[in-house]
Amino acid sequence: MTIATDVAAALAIHGGPKAIERPPEDLFRWPIVMPEDEAAVLDVLRRGAMSGTDVTQAFEKEFAAWFGVEHALAHPNGTAALHAALFAVGVGQGDEVICPSITYWASATQALNLGASLQFCDVDPVTLNIDPADFERRITPRTKAVVVVHYTGYPCEMDRILAIARPRGIKVIEDVSHAHGARYHGKLVGTLGDVAGMSLMSGKSLAAGEAGMLITHDRAIFERAVAWGHYERMSAGTKYFSGEPFITDPALLRFAGIPLGGFKNRLNQMSAALGRGQLRHYAGRMAEIDRAMNAFWDAWEALGLPGITAHRPPRDSGLTMGGWYNPLARYDAAAFHGTTVEAFCAALNAEGFRCTPGANKPMHAHPLFHEADVYHAGKPTNLAHANRDLRMPAGSLPSAEAANARVFGIPWFKHHRPEEIGAYVAALAKVARAALEGRLSA
Ligand SMILES: Cc1ncc(COP(=O)(O)O)c(C=O)c1O
User: Using CA atoms, how far apart are residues 157 and 148, in angstroms rounded to an integer?
Assistant: First the structure.
C-alpha cells in the first residue's frame, strides 16, 4: 500500500495525487479461505456427497449451538430460508406482512408467493432499521407477521418491536443476513423473535458460498419449515441431531415424502463444508473486524469534522454490530454546501477510497408492488388476496425515501491494521475538508 501523506494536496478528482495509491487488497479479502476449508470442500467433492445431508446436519448442529437456539435448518440461500420462515409462522392467503421499505427485496417478497400482501413501513432515519412507531401504525387485523432487518449489522429495537407484536399475536421474523453475531443487550440477534432467516452467501460476514439458515427456538415452526422444503427429512425414521425425528406432528407426517411447498431446500454440501470452517473461526474474525471498524470511526471522530457520522450504535447502548456487513457512513449534504453524496463518493473513489453512494432503494416505490400481476389474477400480485389497496405513492415513507441521499458504503476492513486504516481516515478527511471549503461541486 502506498500512503500519500499530503492530504492538503489537490483532490485526485481535480488532477491531484491519490490519497491511497494502491489499496491493500488483503485488508478486504473475504471470506478467508484456509487449507482446512479447501480440504473440507474437496472431501465432499471426492466422496460425491454434494447431495447428502451428513455435513449439512453437522453444520446445522454447530450453527444452533453457536446461536444458542434449539433448531437450525440449512437452505440453499437466505431467500429460501426467509420464504420457509414466512410459511412456518403461518403466513397465508389474505394475510398482511409488514416489512421495512429499506432492505434487500428477499427480506419479505416471498410473502406474495404465499398469497399474502406486503405492507411497507418506514425506517428510523438514524439506524435505517424498521421504525417501531410506524410498524405499529400499519397493523391491521390481517397483519400476521413482521420482518425486521438488522440493517448492515445495526440491531433493531427488539424490545419495542416485541412489545407491539406479541400482545397482538403478530409473529416476528428476524432477517439476520447483515448481522451475524450482532448483539442486542447481550443476546445474539436472530434469537429474539419467533424465527430468523439469513443469507450466508459469499459477500456476507458469515459466508458459506451460496447458503442460508433458518433458526428458531420453536419446535412447531421448525417442523413446518422442514415440511415446507426438506422432503427427505419428513419421514418418521429420519433423526435430527437431538435424536428425535425431524417431524413429530401427525398433521405434517401424513404428507411425508412430498414437501408442502413443493420446494427442494437441501443445501449443497460443498457450501455446508465451507460454512463449518467459516463458523469455527467466525467469533475471532468478527472481533477483529469490530476492532478495525471501530478504530476507523474513532480516528474519524477524533478529527472533529462535521457532516459525516458513523452508522454504529453508541458505545454504552448495549448493541454491537457483529461482522459489520456493508458498513455505512451517514452523510449530511447541508454540511458540505449541498454537495450530493454521489459527488462526494466520486471524489473519494478517485482518491482510492472505494465507496458507494446510498443503500438499498426504497421498495414501496418499486413497480413490482404496484403493477406486476405475476399469477394472472387480474390485479397486482401484492393485492391479489387483499381487502384494500396497499400501494404507496411517493411521499408515503419520508425517511425511507430520503435514506439514499444520506448514507454511503465505506470500506469494510477485515483486519485491525491501524496504519492502513489511518490512511483511509486521512483520505476521507482530505475530501471532507475540500467539500467543507466548497472546493467540491455538487
Ligand atoms: C437483508 C437480506 N435479506 C435476504 C437476503 C437474501 O439472501 P440470499 O441472497 O442468500 O438469498 C439478502 C441477501 O443478499 C439480504 O441482504
Answer: 9
Domain count, the chain: 1
Nearest CA to ligand 1 atom 7: 78
SS (H, E, C) the chain: CCECCCCCCCCHHHCCCCCECCCCHHHCCCCCCCHHHHHHHHHHHHHCCCCCCHHHHHHHHHHHHHHCCCEEEEECCHHHHHHHHHHHCCCCCCCEEEEECCCCHHHCHHHHHHCCEEEEECECCCCCCECHHHHHHCCCCCEEEEEEECHHHCCCCHHHHHHHHHHHCCEEEEECCCCCCCEECCEECCCCCCEEEEECCCCCCCCCCCCEEEEECCHHHHHHHHHHHCHHHCCCCCECCCCCECCCCHHHHCCCCCCCCCCCCCCCHHHHHHHHHHHHHHHHHHHHHHHHHHHHHHHHHHHCCCCEEECCCCCCCCECCCCCCCCEEEECHHHHCCCCHHHHHHHHHHCCCCCEECCCCCCCCCHHHCCCCCCCCCCCHHHCCCCCCCCCCCCCCHHHHHHCCCEEECCCCCCCCHHHHHHHHHHHHHHHHHHHCCCCCC
410 occurs within a structural domain:
no
Ligand 1 pocket check: which of 180, 195, 199 to mutate, most ligand atoms within 8 Å of Cβ? 199
Domain span at 74: 35-276
Question: Which atom, in ligand 1's list, is nearest to the CA of 325?
Answer: 16
Q: How far is the CA of 80 from the centre of ligand 1 (A)?
A: 9
Whether 4 shows a pLDDT value over 70: the answer reads no
For ligand 1, what atom is nearest to the CA of residue 201?
10
347 in a domain, yes or no?
no
1 in any annotated domain:
no
Please state the atom number of ligand 1 nearest to the C-alpha of residue 203. Answer: 14
Residues with CB under 6 A from ligand 1: 77-79, 82, 103-104, 106-107, 149, 175, 177-178, 199, 201, 212
Give me the CATH number covering residue 171.
3.40.640.10
Ligand 1 centre and the CA of 114: distance in Å?
19
pTM for this prediction: 0.97
Give 107-125 pLDDT, tens digit per residue: 999 999 999 999 999 999 9
Determine the distance from the C-alpha atom of residue 89 to the mean position of all C-alpha atoms in its chain, rounded to a whole number.
20
Residue 224 covered by a domain: yes
* pLDDT tens digits, one per residue of 379-405: 999 999 999 999 999 999 999 999 999
